[in-house]
Amino acid sequence: MSFEFAVPLTRKDLLKRTTDTQYVVEEVLTIRQINTQIHGLKAAFRSGPAAILENFDLIYSVLSQLNEVESDVKEEVWNLLVKAVSQHAAQLPALLDTADFDCSTRLQHLNTLKMSAYLLTQFMEAFEAEDTKPTTVTVTKGRKSKKKTSKGDWDWEGERLRVVQSLSQVVQLEIGRLWEPPVVEEEFVNMVANCCYKLLENPSTCKEKGSKEAVFHLLGTLVRRYNHGLGASLKIIQLLQHFEHLASPMAQMVQLFAQQFGAKSVISDIMREIGRMDPSKLVRDNSGTRSYAGFMVELAERVPALMLPNISVILCHLDGESYTMRNGVLGVMSEIVIRELSKGDLDAKGKNARDQFLDCLEEHIHDVNAFVRSKVLTLWLHICNEKAIPLGRWHQLLCLVVGRLQDKSSLVRKVAIQLLTTFLTSNPFGAKLPLDVLKAELEKESARLQEIMPEQPQEQPQDGRPVEEEWSVIQPEVMTALQDLQEEEEEQELIGEEDGLESVVLKVKTLLQQSQHKSAARLVMAAREAWPDEHVFANTGSGEGEEEKEEDDSGLQPDQRNLLEILEAIFVGTTVGIPNPEEVLPASIQEGGTEEGVPEGTVTETEGGEEGGVVNEVSKQQVIVQYLKDSVNFATQMQRAIPILCQLLGSKATSDILETIEFFVSAFEFGLAGAMEGVRRMLVLIWSGEKSVKEAVVEAYKRLYLSPTGGNARARNLAIVKNLTALTVGATVGELTSLEELICELVRTSLLTSGVVTLLWERFALKIQGTTAEDSRGALLLLGMAAGAEPDMVRSNVDVLVQEGLGQRGQDDMQLAKDTCTALLKLAGSQKRKAGCHEEPLRFPADHDMFTGLAGILVNGVENLANPYWIPLMEQGLNVVYRLSENPDVVIGNVIKGVAAVVLRAREAESGQEQAQEPESAETQEEPPTSPTKIIRCSSGVLSRLMALAGHCALRQLVHLDVALTGELKRRRMLQEERNSKAGRKGNTSANNTPSSTPAGKGKDDKELSIEDEMGLAGASADDAEAEYIRKICEKEVVTGSSLLALLAPVIVAVCSNSTMFPHPQLRATASLALAKYMLVSSEFCEAHLQLLFTILERAPQPIIRANTIIALGDLSFRFPNLIEPWTPNLYARLRDDSSHVRKNTLMVLTHLILNDMLKVKGYISDMAACMVDDVSGIADLAKLFFLELSKKGNSIYNIMPDMVSRLSDPDCGVTEEHFRTIMKYLFSFIQKDKQSESLVEKLCHRFRATRTERQARDLAFCQKC
């Protein structure tokens, strides 16, 4: 054979001859010629694979025109090639086993191998390219249909696997003998390898496990047998850059190279190439960088031991600009720590590497990029889950994570909270972490340690000098010994296998006392190598001040200075030893980490056999103390995070809220102190508009309170009842309101079962043994809350409620009676009725046990002044009467008469309890119908309760008339109209069937009425008439005239008018509130007593009276705005009140009035602006919030600015220059329009001429700059 086939770089190279012996394709056949010669090709290949030598041009022609030839031809040629390669692979072993074969045979087989392999790889690449082309193949549900290269049943995925296996069979032979010299040429290896890489570019190849593994093994054979390692490394880098889906397959392939084919150098080559990459290019090519990072992390996960020696070459990227690459390098570190450096038998080098990696991970918790910070925290989360964090790092790491809770990035905060939760659930200290219990246990064990700690006479030298002074004497000698110490002397084996840490420390100190300084230094150096992580041999950094200066001047090397510090610490006794932790540590510590910090006060004296047991006992106690110290530190750090996490419950980011909820649930389960605060704060989130947050809150409380374990169904239900009752103890009004919504949600979702409700009723009725009065009240509260979602729960048990809550128990426990009234109110439902609802409201007769029992409690308990729940019960009881009674005026009238009778029966003799509380009695003038001038002396407390009853009754009567009565009249009228319309339709039907006998005038009236009905005027006129009737009753018959409430009005006015005769603070506060409630009912009564109310507002000495009065005046402003409008300056004046409570209430009232357009924005608003610099931060924040909302109402801020500048800059206003600037900066920030700014500047410039002081001019100039 006279030619040799050379593998071409491109397909066209086979058409050009460069050497005499090179094979060249003579002619590329046409499609017609191919079709005529294809049958001859089949016949030729029957003789064997050598037929390719004579028919190469024909197959080449098919390859060149692959897109034009028929599918049958392509299939036929493909099958012939595959068969030829397989046959040749079967023939070669016999040939290669021959000791010697002639040159022509070698060349023939070599050309056959090259030609068949070349054509086969070319066809594979062509078919693969066709397979990866975008197609319009219909996608079936769930997965794509397989692509075919022909119309037949030929599956390319199966063919691909078959060919790769054939090529693997070839390259596994000793084919190098076919070359001369016997080395496979690089072009042939690259040809096969490039075909494999081309296959991997197709994502479908990587998804098919068989094809993928076959390609990997083929490439692995090339790497091991044909020196393709470097080429594979470079090609892997290129593939990762352009194909992001190859990150995981490439890591799997490199693992295969290293473990099965022994090509570990591939990892080094790849890491070296990645380390050499330009950081600026990595920033621009984010997709490629992401692939590199993912590849490195997965490779470290698969072969951490091989990645560890190569990590140094990629550390440079930690300082690069690409945050993705930083994440990749840090991910490699974490995987190495978890899978390689977390073993218990690490040597000193491994521990040092682990510490360096963990230090690096800690540093990047504060990375400049938020994505890196979140990624590092995620890595720490992974490390924590794998229990690979050394115990000594927990405290420092926890501090860093707590700091990230206030990160500006929500992504970082989310992972930080997750990490804290994982720290809590994976902590090595215990399943319960109550801080107070741990501290008490620590004190107890520390005291026991002090008791068993033996004397340490070596602390004081024999000559009586202090140890520090003794050290200062021998320090120069020690320094000289360290300088003379030779390196080779360190190699002597100074520590035996039986020597422990305590014995070595004691021996060092003994050598120093015996002036054998070199021996002591050598022993320390040997011990440092034996126990590199022990605190005893760490750099203590004790050299300070003059001593450090002396050490620096001595010329010691850093290591020698470190030795000197260790020797000093051992001699002086400031360092300690530690026994083997595994002997005495609890199991939780042994599982959670590796090394532990060194406890203080370890005994170093072990002289004599009798003291050995003592020392062992002391060592165990020291470990227990250290364990408790670590537990206390951990719990303290967790406790420090709770206030920050409570704030995050109000975050705008939903992720913060969800993760914080999960943390508090775990913290509560672990008994962490302060966790209950977070659990209670979670309650308010039940009102969240975010569905996920609301569901998380419900799920959290279900997990904490509704999921008890153990016992039968009744025992579990009883546990649920106790858990929910505990939530009501000590809860604020806001928390109870949120808890009610939570309970309603639990009822709606059937999480609160009927069994739990039954037990609540039993607990309320004291049917369960051991139930206290507080437990009963809690059960009643929960029943009332649940009734908000299901009122039938109360409706079916009204008799039980009345009998228990308003019976004898209610007489003795007014708080229980008040809660009973709250539950009964659920029967009334919403006060506002739905439009078109004709359902008759639920009402009970006036003589029902509910009302008689309530009246009896109020009348009989009015003189019990020691009980503070009478007024809350009275208010809630009146609400029940007006919502549920058919004749509320009758019931309330009897109550008022009964309480008034108690007042009239009172005489000068006061009860002992009343005398203790009120040493003075109040005089008042009652005006009963029989004796209008009789003077009655009675208790101020009882009289104040009568006034509170009258005031609240007047208010509830107004609401009853204005809402309930009006609604009932409207409901009845609508029912009547429906009856009339039905009757009218029947009448019209009969009228159509009979002759009309209606007079003409009546027909005209009916026509007018029907027109009014169609226009809705009839109903509107009726509404107006009813409203006018109700208004007239309120004006003339409720608090004025001869009604029962009107008879009490002079008493209320007298108490409010005469502070000398009625000085009792509670009486005056109640009277002022009752007066304000009376004024809300009637404009006539309001106008008559308005001046008195403002006098109380300005002159009342008690801040609580002024604070209540300003709120009442806000309500009056809504009710009678025209009456209050002339008194507006008096309202603003309370912004300068001495009491912060009064100022705050005034600011809130004025805010509501102005923002609801009930009060005009006038010049007095400058007083509200002055509140922005109030000493109380809450008031300042409310003022800023007011102006923020006001700025949303058109040009309101712009319109008031000129007058506000003038008033606040007035020296008589009392606003300092600094405060003036603070206010103006904030207000001018709302002036956004250029036109408004220019107009303000012009107006302010005109005011310079009117300034009277330099301060005013400076203020105007400052406003110009704003």
From TrEMBL:
It holds the Pfam family Cnd1_N. Coiled coil: none annotated. Residues 987-999 have a biased composition (Polar residues). GO terms for biological process: cell division; mitotic chromosome condensation. Residues 1104-1263 form the Condensin complex subunit 1 C-terminal domain. GO terms for cellular component: chromosome; nucleus. Residues 72-232 form the Condensin complex subunit 1 N-terminal domain. InterPro entries: ARM-like, ARM-type_fold, CND1/NCAPD3, Cnd1_C, Condensin_cplx_su1, Condensin_cplx_su1_N. It is found in: Chromosome; Nucleus. Keywords: Cell cycle, Cell division, Chromosome, DNA condensation, Mitosis, Nucleus. Residues 544-554 have a biased composition (Acidic residues). It comes from the Eukaryota. The keyword NADP does not apply. Its main location: nucleus. Regulatory subunit of the condensin complex, a complex required for conversion of interphase chromatin into mitotic-like condense chromosomes. The condensin complex probably introduces positive supercoils into relaxed DNA in the presence of type I topoisomerases and converts nicked DNA into positive knotted forms in the presence of type II topoisomerases. Belongs to the CND1 (condensin subunit 1) family. This is Condensin complex subunit 1. It comes from Branchiostoma floridae.
